[in-house]
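Notes, p. 3: input format for complexes.
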Amino acid sequence: MKVIVSGGGTGGHIYPALALINEIKKNSSDVEFLYIGTENGLEKDIVKRAGIPFKSIEISGFKRKLSTDNLKTIARFFKGVSLSKKYMKEFKPDVVIGTGGYVCGPVVYAATKLNIPTMIHEQNSLPGITNKFLAKYVDKVAICFEEARKYFPSQKVVLTGNPRASEVLGQDAEKGRQSLGLKANQKTVLIFGGSRGAKAINEAVLQMIPLLKNKPYQIVYVTGEVHYDKVMKEVELLEDSSHVMIKPFIHNMPEVLASVDLIVSRAGATSLAEITALGLPSILIPSPYVTANHQEKNAQAISENHAAMMIREQELNGELLLTHIDEILLDDKKLAEMSKASAELGIPDAATRLYRELLEIANK
Ligand SMILES: CC(=O)N[C@H]1[C@@H](OP(=O)(O)OP(=O)(O)OC[C@H]2O[C@@H](n3ccc(=O)[nH]c3=O)[C@H](O)[C@@H]2O)O[C@H](CO)[C@@H](O)[C@@H]1O
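Output follows (364 residues plus uridine-diphosphate-N-acetylglucosamine):
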């Protein structure tokens, strides 16, 4: 089988695509992949690291206001469609899958015009603009939240969950601990601001670091690649930060997730799929800078079930974050209750479900 996958911009769209690729590889030895992304999204680096052949197109997003940039976006879209068609005529895929982000628009649209079977995967409860556009043309729409169903043609929709949920299961926690030099006999908090890092979370963590000394747990703090140098300059000014492990990005997240006890993060849908598949408790700080505030809806779905605590960005500060971390990590009963609630929300067999749907359209 030959498969083209496209999804990009941020990790939340890329890692599900790679998780699906891994699931296909697990089930079939005779399969070839091509990933189509952009040169400037995170996919270029992440997909190449995963050893998947990568080709790129140029694309940009629509501005909400009337603007001449939108004309350029339309021109880029059609250029992207014709380049994608060229790639497809060379590669001859049996199926094309889009996992979100602007780049999927021209790629998946081109496939539908060439009558290649297509599927899109929507991670969020509130769909993105690209997937809403593509839904009219594709054969199947895979969703992760029941709430997303109403935005798509009902006969095409199937609830699969996020394949990244399956990928993070059964990982070696010891390997995760070793990769970061973590102690085995201490609880661990992992703090990160989605795949690109988050300025507001970084500011709160910097306020919190001096208050963390002598706590009976260890902290791994991921700044996001683009914020790392700036954060480290601030860290140098602190009296002591040796009790916090600071990284720009984590490339072996499945292993690391297996070795931690509590997550502090944004409320991106792919992270939440991972967290609930593993039954991890979390403190969620939804990004207010996303379409229709969809991260807050994601976070609410989890916190209403008592699997997470939510802090809105405007209320966030170091002291409040520390209070919440202590409240969960220093109370074993609360930790166990939140973990159980989190596990109840997970869809651990999502990769199998999505793979089944893919076979169905590919074999038509
Ligand atoms: C600003 C923005 O548009 N955010 C969107 C984006 O978020 P974002 O890309 O931040 O997505 P998520 O939080 O859902 O997923 C992040 C992914 O990156 C991985 N990771 C993260 C940090 C790290 O150091 N290493 C690492 O591997 C996580 O394990 C996860 O697999 O896509 C999500 C899924 O469609 C949406 O819900 C978010 O609203």
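The chain has a mean pLDDT of 95.
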